[in-house]
Amino acid sequence: MELRTLRYFLAVASEQNITHAAQKLNISQPPLSRQLAQLEEELGVSLFIRGKRRIQLTEEGKYLAQQAQHILNMADHTAQQLSQMKSQDVKGKLLLGITETCSAGMLPDLLPRFSRLYPQVSYDLWCGSSSDISQRVEQGIIDIGIIREPLPQGNFESVFLSRETWIAIASKGHPLAHKEKVTVSQLCQYPLFIPSRQPLQNEVHTWLASQSGTYHVIGMYNQISSIVPLVAGNMGIAICAQSIKKYTDDRQISYINIAEPQLITGIYMICARSKLLPANARAFWDFVASDVTEDTFLSP
């Protein structure tokens, strides 16, 4: 299976028409049709449902399209980084994964300063959960991840960046909305949204149980933005990192500080120990690592 064949396949999948795909690729239609037939024969599956006017992907074809895009992205990125290593220039696309709240809390400070030092670096930012980011770093899809602890087990290098206190958010009409600070036991009197990621979820359960005999988790979230409308609609209170203040509308929700014992998590930068970082990622890693002050708390 050649990279060229995968590019041909993705062009047909995108255009849903061999003639249009051939024009886009600047090749004639017969060689393109032969390449696709050979690919199906090589894989032993049907990739297309061929209609009169358009071509659709089978389930196998959809899976291959997803994997082919990853393969080609990695191939292009690898070629780009090898070129940079040869020239020793810090430029090109930096593949960075970061969680939703860490993005709001850290990137507005870090990226502008880094960009002033390395103006030829561009950014491919992928936002997801800490678990998903760790997996993509391990697979080489992302160069560097910025995640929230607990740290993943495996072959990772890590640098501590900061600590962040967690707060509660509630609708403007909630009974606790106008309190400056509440106890954990007060929170536990209302339905709660908590993070779904393990083992952070277990840590939150332990924290809640230590202060209250009973509590009701009405839902769990992977991305906090997914449940903000539910909180605004007074369905429950969400426990989340305080950096949510930087990208949510305080006209819809209230931010409530939590009394001792507070829930505090660390934020870390990770990369795969077994993989050589490209020049731009190494420059970013060194820049961020040198910027860290011990016991730093992320500003709200």
Automatic annotation (TrEMBL):
SUPFAM superfamilies: Periplasmic binding protein-like II, Winged helix' DNA-binding domain. GO terms for cellular component: cytosol. Residues 1-58 form the HTH lysR-type domain. The keyword Transcription applies. Keywords: DNA-binding, Transcription, Transcription regulation. Signal peptide: none annotated. Pfam families: HTH_1 (PF00126), LysR_substrate (PF03466). One of its GO terms (molecular function) is DNA binding. Gene3D superfamilies: 3.40.190.290, Winged helix-like DNA-binding domain superfamily/Winged helix DNA-binding domain (1.10.10.10). Belongs to the LysR transcriptional regulatory family. PANTHER family: HTH-TYPE TRANSCRIPTIONAL REGULATOR YBHD, NITROGEN ASSIMILATION TRANSCRIPTIONAL ACTIVATOR-RELATED. This is LysR family transcriptional regulator. It comes from Candidatus Scybalocola faecigallinarum. The lineage of its organism: Bacteria, Bacillati, Bacillota, Clostridia, Lachnospirales.
